[in-house]
Amino acid sequence: MNQTILIDKQQDAWQWATILHAGQSYGGHQEGERVEYINHIGSVVFEISNAFRHETGLNQELGVLCAILHDTLEDTEATFETLEHLFGKPVADGVLALTKNTTIESKEQQMLDSLERIKLQPKEVWAVKMADRICNLYAPPFYWSNEKKESYLIEAKLIHSHLKEGSSYLSERLLEKIERYRRFIN
Q1: Closest CA to 71 of 7, 153, 118, 129
Q2: Where are the alpha helices (DSSP H) in 79-122?
Q3: From CA 141, how far away is CA 139, in angstroms rounded?
Q4: What is the pTM of this model?
Q5: Distance CA 24, CA 26 (A)
Q6: pLDDT tens across 38-80, in order?
Q7: Given the DSSP bridges, would you call strands 25-27 and 34-36 parallel, antiparallel or unpaired?
Q8: Are 51 and 167 in contact, with CB atoms under 8 Å apart?
Q9: For residue 58, is it left (φ>0), alpha (ψ between -120 and 50) or beta?
Q10: Distance from chain centroid for Cα 63
Q11: Short-list 45, 10, 20, CA closest to 135
């Protein structure tokens, strides 16, 4: 694909995601901190873009677009049909696989279901899920209990065990982040 068309498509996706996630924020590591949600989206894009520098044979367009849009179906009013219309079926299918099915009652079963759907997608989608968790392991929100942090680590290990074949570089990064995250548990 022409690089100009690719960057235009990425910028279109970024603007759409920014509008969709407007007003969303999450708790920072320090009490009282609030971080704009688009920061998380950018962090995932940075991770996936960096992975492309370390690995060949991955579809950069699919990976970056899925990274930008990975939470739109889960956390905004965006629909699969709109996503497919704007960015194509492969991107929409990837984002759908990255979206938890909230009709499943158990959080653990939601994650397992998502991981199984991700494994039916191209490796770039696997890489986005690992990049997402890497970014979520920088520092927990100040209000998380040790129990919540421990369960998050268990889930990170589950993600790694299912998706490590998607990107050797991100697989190693995720393992490093899991190990370093332990410093946040008392």
Answers
A1: 129
A2: 80-87, 89-97, 107-118
A3: 7
A4: 0.95
A5: 7
A6: 999 999 999 999 999 999 899 999 999 999 999 999 999 999 9
A7: antiparallel
A8: yes
A9: beta
A10: 10
A11: 45
Whether the per-residue pLDDT at 5 is higher than 60: the answer is yes
Residue 104 corresponds to which tokens in the numbers above?
A: 């499943």
How far apart CA 64 and CA 10 sit, in angstroms, is 7
Instruction: Provide the pLDDT confidence category of residue 90 given band limits of 50, 70 and 90.
Output: very high
Q: Chain-wide mean pLDDT for the chain? A: 95
State the Cα angle at 114 between 183 and 117, rounded to 5°: 135
pLDDT for 1 beyond 60: no
Cβ-Cβ contacts under 8 Å for 97 (sequence gap 6 or more): 114, 117, 118, 120, 121, 125
24 vs 76: CA distance, rounded Å: 9
Across 90-101, average pLDDT = 98
